[in-house]
Amino acid sequence: MTTLLPPHAVLLALLLAAAPAALSAQPKLIEVHQRIAADPASTPQLALTLDACSGQFDAPLLNHLIAQRIPATLFVTRRWLRRNPRAIALIKQHLDLFAIENHGANHVPALIGAERRVYGLKVHADLPQLEHEVHAGAHAIRQAFGTSPRWYRGATAIYDRTSIAAIHRLGYEVAGFSLNADHGARSGRAAIVRRLQAAQAGDVIIAHMNHPESGTAAGLIGSLTALRARGFVFVRLDRVQLREIAPPAPYRAARAP
């Protein structure tokens, strides 16, 4: 005798059966890793990139870069710009030193999917939302500094092929990195110093400039001076070409939403 399942049980069974296929259809996450494409015989170069997601302005860090004439590429959001007029005024005095690039309007990861999350952050519901995040971030930079960004780095620096293609269609290069100095401004001074001691020619360093309460400034300030003493020259991203590299072994794309 055939047993009929109640409707809700049938629906549950269908959902469970479809789950593996749905998971396998989820786009693969990509963390872009890049290095400076330089002649091995040239002066060893490093690119320091600093993200300003939201929050405050790390004045000691920026003042050190200015005092020591260390070039850097600053990835800023519209949200951070609105909250930090003093930072804008300071940076505008030193646009020969700092390249200002696009970190988006509201620090939303450059991924699409109503139910997706990355590091707890909601992503864009659809492609127009992603495009608005990029366009509005660029517009805020033009308003604040009178310059047009060339590079885009999404919140969390995690993408998929669809979002990377969309960013390229909007006219921007996706900015990756090869050395994560402060792990989202969560690392202490000692950890940052240790990571930067291992820097190699061509590294693109990522750190943050919006958490003055963190160990980032303390870790960077002494380390950058030491790297210069070792013969490294710091460059901005708009002055070099980057090449994509394979991610390091510890990285796992499974850091999924």
Task: Provide structural commentary.
The protein has eight helices and 14 strands. It is an alpha/beta fold. The protein has one domain: TIM Barrel (Alpha-Beta Barrel), CATH 3.20.20. The strands form five sheets. Strands 3, 4, 5, 11, 12 and 13 form a six-stranded parallel beta sheet that branches. It has a two-stranded antiparallel ribbon with strand order 1-9. Helix 2 packs parallel to helix 8 and helix 7 runs parallel beside helix 8. It is globular and about 50 Å long. The chain starts with 6 loop residues before the first helix and ends in a 13-residue tail after the last strand.
Query: Which sequence of SSEs, written as H and E, runs from N to C?
Result: HEEEHEHHEEEHEEHEEHEHEE
Average pLDDT across residues? Answer: 88
| First-residue to last-residue Cα separation | 45 Å
CATH topology: TIM Barrel
Present the secondary structure layout.
Layout: H1 7-25, E1 30-31, E2 34-36, E3 45-52, H2 59-68, E4 72-76, H3 78-83, H4 85-92, E5 98-102, E6 117-118, E7 121-122, H5 127-145, E8 151-152, E9 158-159, H6 161-169, E10 173-174, E11 179-180, H7 189-197, E12 204-208, H8 216-229, E13 233-235, E14 242-244
Parallel strand pairs: 3-4, 3-12, 3-13, 4-5, 8-10, 11-12
Antiparallel strand pairs: 1-9, 2-14, 6-7
In short:
The chain has helices at 7-25, 59-68, 78-83, 85-92, 127-145, 161-169, 189-197, 216-229, and strands at 30-31, 34-36, 45-52, 72-76, 98-102, 117-118, 121-122, 151-152, 158-159, 173-174, 179-180, 204-208, 233-235, 242-244.
